[in-house]
Amino acid sequence: MTYNNTFAGKHNVNVMLGQEMSKSYWENQVGATSGFLTNSTPDLSAGDISKSTSTGSRNINSIASFFGRAFYSFDERYLLTATIRRDGSSKFAKGHKWGWFPAVALAWRVSQESFLRDVEPINSLKLRAGWGKTGNQNVTDYAYMALLANKTTPWGVGVLTGNTANPDLTWETTSSYNIGLDLGLLQNRIEFIADVYYKKTDNLLLQLPLPSFLGSGGQGAANNPWGNVGSIENKGIELTLNTTNIVTRDFQWTSNLVFSLNRNKVKELDTANSSIEKSYQPSSTNYIVTKTVVGEPIGQFWGYKVIGRFDKPEDFYYHDAAGNLQQVAIPSGNTIAQSSTWIGDYIYEDINGDGVIDSSDCTFIGNPEPKFTWGFGNTFTWKGFDLNIFFSGSYGNDALNLTRMRIEDPRQNSNILRSSLNYAKVDVIDPSLPADDYRNLHVTNPGATTMPALQRTDANANYTRVSDLLVEDASYIRLQNISVGYTFPRNWMRKIYLQNLRVYFSAQNVHTWTKYKGLDPEVGAMYGDALMTGVDYGRYPSPRIYTFGLNVSF
Q1: pLDDT above 80 (res 223)
Q2: Which of 95, 170, 373, 496 is deepest in the core (most CB within 10 A)?
Q3: C-beta separation of 453 from 312 below 8 A
Q4: Residue range 78-98: mean pLDDT, rounded
Q5: pTM for the structure as a whole
Q6: What separation in angstroms does the CA of 532 have from each of 292, 295, 463, 471, 542?
């Protein structure tokens, strides 16, 4: 329902009230079997009935919303907009279902003032400011209540609690502050838009890790519960520049440049010493790949720092501040031996200074957040032809190339990179002395490779540690899109009873300039998890797409 009116020629009022509600329902049923005599008959009844299984599930959620907006302007110079929402979600328990989400925005068209109205170069100038609050209810259905899970027992199928309930679960809220400027110059041939923003998100909706003694795989209350944990801030700037560079009777050239810079920081978790660790488990080993702590950006890469390689016997020792000879820290439980740490192995930084390399020596090794991103587009038209070229880019972001952990390991017998052939080569110093004494061995190609030596075992975990050697600069410049088209003259088209005819060709992801060794520097978030952004374990690259098209209007 909307009311709109203008009073005394200068006061404009627009008021809107609305209500909406929606309900979503999913249901699935799955049946499976094996033991088919032939692949040509895929019907379940053709398999071994004793091996048949079936399962199913249902999910229901709903949301109801009441909202209103009021707009007021005076003389098209001063503008005020206020909105409010009242949202209720079935994903939260009674007493926590509803949330208030207000917003207000102010604008001043400075160019409408008398002191700027006759300034010819300035066609438009608007100052903007706004504040608003939004809500997020993106959690698993029924996360606030205890659900039952099937459990097979010697006496048949029973049930256990399938998750840890959280009846206090509620809306995640984000408060946003924004100041902006819109400027048009030279008959609006130059348009500049600038925004500075600050966002603070409270009551973050995250799944909380449970202690390992609670079990896994459905052993009762094993699924991580959802909770409202801490807060995070984002602040940055967004700039847009649109220009009309050349305009003639037959030729026109316009450009568009966008620039974005964002910084985020975790302001609060459960406690000042809390952390959120994200792991990846491709095999029996569980690798912690990112860590989120208070005072740092979210989802930074976590691992060991490699500070060198044992290229010669002297590398195993160093002189301390007092001049005493000390052994370089090596992994816990290792000695200097062929079956432990040996010539050609990596030297890891002893972060805590205890003389042993273990998980307590892990630290932040990279940040997936770019320093800035940008896009630059140009459109050219000449008579009936049009050409559009768009570049995009990101600068200063890291990627954790986990694929190299396996396919750059020369001990593998398949699916390895050519670079794995360039491993550190170890040979004796004096052929007359024992070849199993590290004091008589050295790396013969120390400057030609940064890879470790080929060892029978990996006791030093050269290939199975998440380290800064796997962190790469994922900055890139990408020719994102090229399109070219031709629109036939209308007087031609009328002769064949057409209003318009245009043919075009476009290409996407044409070329990428980057130092990143993976398939695509635009890694994104693994599993769609924002705390796993930039983690690459074989992400499918963006494809190059060619499109031919024809637009016809009768």
Answers
A1: no
A2: 170
A3: no
A4: 95
A5: 0.86
A6: 10, 18, 21, 14, 19
